[in-house]
Amino acid sequence: MSKVTIGGVTGPGGAGKTSLTVNLGALLAHDGVRTLLIDADLYFPDMAFHLGIKSPYTISTYLKNPRVDLEWLIHRYRLHGLYAVIGDTEASPDPDAPYSKIPGLLEMLRHFYGAILVDFPPGLPVAAHKVVDMLDFQILVIDPSNVPLVDTEGHVEATIRKFREMGCPNFGVVINRPFLPQDRLEDLISFIEDTLEVPLYGIIPFDPAIFEETSSGIVSPEVAFEPLRGLAGLIEDRFL
Ligand SMILES: Nc1ncnc2c1ncn2[C@@H]1O[C@H](COP(=O)(O)OP(=O)(O)OP(=O)(O)O)[C@@H](O)[C@H]1O
Ligand SMILES: [Mg+2]
Q1: CA 130–ligand 1 middle distance (angstroms)
Q2: Domain of residue 179, residue span
Q3: CB 99 within 8 A of CB 13
Q4: pLDDT tens-place string over residues 75-85
Q5: Domain CATH code at residue 80
């Protein structure tokens, strides 16, 4: 049995999925966990932008030719121990087909890493269920100031129901940029923890350094994700 842990990150568009994926990856790598990030947002992938990586070798290269040399596919990030398979916008004519091939990629790569973090598109396509089957944990990121539906609780409830139906064994919620009055925030936390009985993995305040990090394409564990410390610790204690 290899000791890899595979985590998935999903949430509404713009909630902070990719920021969370790359910064959590940076923290894990900083702690000595050899970590691979995979951009599995096959619709609007943006991990390459967050990491400042420019390369023609992307997940599509693998999906078109699963025998591709992994040396080309896996980009070594400037931070020691952090690696990435970036996405691109070459959408397949059959949107389900790529997701059926990603488990093969995970199966091949799981032996080489301590942690693999998969950045999913908003809404977690049903076709991705074979990938979800391979996850040890799943993170829902919400940005209550920016949920496309006004009903944040309803959105969280629907997504958690979907996680449960998809059979993911462990999941939790991260609240990003909680621009809410204190009592509304407390209600939301209580809804997540008490009503839905789902752990709250963390709350990330608005931090301009996170935005600057994204626009410069430089991710560092020192920058801004101190709020993810607890989540990184939980992953290391529980799954590694
Ligand atoms: N806590 C935060 N403080 C400040 N800026 C943030 C924070 N979280 C995310 N951002 C910024 O918000 C933007 C959207 O974040 P991000 O790209 O991570 O979202 P996403 O959910 O991956 O979006 P998409 O659905 O388009 O893939 C980025 O510019 C990022 O730098
Ligand atoms: Mg993204």
Answers
A1: 26
A2: 5-239
A3: no
A4: 999 999 999 99
A5: 3.40.50.300
